[in-house]
């Protein structure tokens, strides 16, 4: 009996987490996949099986193609810059400088603030004429700019907010990784006459690769799942110039009430994230040294 209890105890401990994971992740994902092959039930009309018709409709959907393009640009623009900025901030607050605790708090503060609150603050920054950015640029002779109302600047404005919001969160992981590096490595490099840049490039950065891989995966996922600032600041406009894929899924499901098409869009999003994760963990992980 004791042997049976010892074998059952780990599974019983995992049971609550497994139930929550299945209830809120796996079962909804399977249900969404099944619904993507049916039409949306409306009133007394039940759902009808249509096969891959929903997926074929995407190829002729200009809003979906625009959202996919915008999300790719958003990810390519925010992920590298957020990671680079977070690494720079971690290096700064890891050094022996005065006010280090205050700098750490300042860098991490945007992460604590809710995205909706941050988006409302940045709405003031982007206000044409009297917003913070226009006030600063006016001192250099620049005219007023409608940052969120122009197709050329709406998406970059959201990207700038995303970088500012995410960098402080990733900084914590880099700071923890930097503090795990033995000071003896820096001393040995200094005795060998290595410059600080050479020491960082050949010793510190390779040791940070496990953290970089982890941060890269999370940053990429965040670039596809964060839409609060889109809802508050642009609502996808102007002319879908700032529409991201998850925002389009949200509109399709809860505004236009086309849950079947939204299910197909969701599966495309999940497939894209799975492919990116496989590339990152399956290929890049082989080039990461954990010891």
From TrEMBL:
It is found in: Cell membrane. The chain crosses the membrane at residues 12-34, 72-93, 105-125, 158-178, 199-221, 260-284. Pfam families: BPD_transp_1. It is a multi-pass membrane protein. It comes from the Bacteria. The keyword Ribosomal protein does not apply. SUPFAM superfamilies: MetI-like (SSF161098). Residues 68-278 form the ABC transmembrane type-1 domain. CDD domains: TM_PBP2. GO terms for biological process: transmembrane transport. InterPro entries: ABC_transporter_permease, MetI-like, MetI-like_sf. Keywords: Cell membrane, Membrane, Transmembrane, Transmembrane helix, Transport. One of its GO terms (cellular component) is plasma membrane. Signal peptide: none annotated. Its main location: membrane. Belongs to the binding-protein-dependent transport system permease family. This is Sugar ABC transporter permease. It comes from Neoaquamicrobium microcysteis.
């Amino acid at each position: 009996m004791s042997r049976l209890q010892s074998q059952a105890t780990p599974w019983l401990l995992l049971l609550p987490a497994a139930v929550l994971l299945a209830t809120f992740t796996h079962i909804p994902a399977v249900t969404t996949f099944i619904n993507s092959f049916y039409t949306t039930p409306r009133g007394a009309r039940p759902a009808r099986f249509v096969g891959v018709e929903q997926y074929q409709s995407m190829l002729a959907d200009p809003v979906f193609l625009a959202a996919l393009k915008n999300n790719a640009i958003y990810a390519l623009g925010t992920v590298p810059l957020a990671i680079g900025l977070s690494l720079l901030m971690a290096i700064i607050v890891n050094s022996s400088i005065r006010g280090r605790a205050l700098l750490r708090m300042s860098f991490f503060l945007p992460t604590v603030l809710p995205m909706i609150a941050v988006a409302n603050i940045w709405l003031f920054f982007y206000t044409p004429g009297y917003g913070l950015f226009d006030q600063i640029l006016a001192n250099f002779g620049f005219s007023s700019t409608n940052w969120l109302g122009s197709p050329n600047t709406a998406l970059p404005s959201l990207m700038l907010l995303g970088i500012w919001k995410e960098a402080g969160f990733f900084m914590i992981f880099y700071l923890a990784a930097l503090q795990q590096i033995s000071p003896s490595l820096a001393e040995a490099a200094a005795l060998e006459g290595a410059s600080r840049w050479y020491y960082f490039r050949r010793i510190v950065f390779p040791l940070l690769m496990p953290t970089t891989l982890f941060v890269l995966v999370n940053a990429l996922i965040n670039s596809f799942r964060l839409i609060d600032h889109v809802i508050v600041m642009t609502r996808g406009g102007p002319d879908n110039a700032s529409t991201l894929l998850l925002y389009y899924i949200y509109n399709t499901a809860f505004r236009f009430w086309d849950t079947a098409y939204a299910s197909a869009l969701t599966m495309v999003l999940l497939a894209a994230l799975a492919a990116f994760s496989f590339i990152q963990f399956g290929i890049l992980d082989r080039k990461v040294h954990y010891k």
